[in-house]
Amino acid sequence: MAPAKTIFTVGHSNLEAGDFLSLLARAGIEIVADVRSLPQSSRFPQFSHAALENLLRGENIAYKFFGEELGGRPDDPTAYFDDGRVNYTARRRSFAFQSGLECLLKLAQEKTVALLCAEEDPLDCHRFLMISPELAAAGSPPVHVRKDGSLETQEAVENRLLEAHGFRGVAANTLFPEARAEALEKAYELQSARAAFRVDPVRVGTLSDRSPR
Question: Whole-structure pTM over 0.85, yes or no?
Answer without folding.
Answer: yes
